[in-house]
Amino acid sequence: MAYQRLTREQIVQRVAQDIPEGAYVNLGIGLPTKIANHLDANKEIFLQSENGVLGMGPAPAKGEEDADLINAGKEFITLLEGGSYFHHGDSFTMMRGGHIDICVLGAFQVAENGDLANWHTGAPDAIPAVGGAMDLAIGAKNVFVTMEHVTKNGEPKIVKSCSYPLTGMACVNRIYTDLAVIEVTPKGLVVTEMVNGLSFEELQSLTDAPLSRE
Amino acid sequence: MIDKTSASIFEAIKQIQDGATVMIGGFGTAGQPAELIDALIAHGAKELTVVNNNAGNGDLGLAALLKAGQVKKIICSFPRQSDSYEFDKLYYAKKIELELVPQGNLAARIQAAGAGLGAIYTPTGYGTLLAEGKDSKVINGRGYVLEYPIHADFALIKAFKGDRWGNLVYRKSARNFGPIMATAAKCTIAQVNEIVPLGAIDPEHVITPGIFIQHVVAV
After folding, report:
1. In sequence order, which residues have a C-beta less than 8 Å from that of residue B6 and are 6 or more positions away?
2. How confident is the model at residue A122 (pLDDT cuts 50, 70, 90)?
3. CB distance from A169 to chain B under 8 Å?
4. I need a labelling partner for B77 at 20 to 30 A (CA). Which of A6, A110, B22, B63 fits?
5. A1 within a domain of the structure (yes/no)
6. Could you give the CA distance from residue B35 to residue B219 in angstroms, rounded to a whole number?
7. Residue A37 per-residue DSSP state
8. ipTM
9. Domains with residue ranges and CATH for chain B
10. pTM of the entire structure?
């Protein structure tokens, strides 16, 4: 039976639905950053940026950019009314100290126990860069991952054990892919949603780690 | 009368000796003290260890300091960026040493130095490559890595306004590492957009109290 993968835009739309009013949220660089564009404008949600911003607003209008007001990806942003600025010590106290309700990160691999690999491919000639990924991975109350279900070569990214260097151990709570939404539970990976037309068996065949159904 | 303001950037910068550890504020170019770095390039101190979140962007500021060959080691969290080509060249030519530190550990180690702590146990990095060879400990069921403070001889930071006692306020997300680096260096030099009279900064709004600042220069 034919199924349609979600586009990257649809993945972030799906994640945005699960962010409740009042949540303190950190969106990782790349795909997760786009979630901000899909949050319900009627909900008050607090977006935190690791470089010392709480209450991050949308991108400024052309000509309104301020070099002193950027996000973690070094893109220009705005501050909402009620927002605040703080130094890096306070920012990582928020992030590492369990004050962020939800962080959303991209990933190379997620293991069935929630191990996350998203900072380094392990290639010997790659310049390593980690930024705030390791702090967020172990510091937020809930860690959501957004990624394609398989690599460009069709290899599963949800695995029994990560082959790439870890960002954090047993830290992921939920995975949103272009095929499914999967909870990481003490009993293993539990599929809570699949795209229309996809069978559980097909999903399992694209996943290295064992899945179960709700 | 105590007056920490300097008319000349160079007078403040020329104290930096070869081999010094220099913290440089900024996240990318936001909060980067570009004029202080230019003065450091002109001064020419070599064999520096630089502490910054990144490893230079484009051609200016920290990137220019790297290009000038004055940095032997950089301690940072995110060196690899689309415009970090000066660092990339030095790294691949093995002309610079990199100590990669998760960003929160970088902040915490700087704060530990400023606060006079001997070491910290941090959960960040536990069980990863960046904890290899380091002591670790399980406390109340959670794993932590032992990390040591990062002290500096100098911190170069950028603030918005300062007074002659060194009290500072910052501007928006340019604040980032400035306030914590100011606590961790023996000598902190702050460049400010404006020097204001004592009392002009509401004491409730002071972000960095003057005790952490040795020199203030207007640029």
Report:
1. B12, B215, B216, B217
2. confident
3. yes
4. A110
5. no
6. 7
7. G
8. 0.96
9. 18-100+151-218 (3.40.1080.10)
10. 0.97
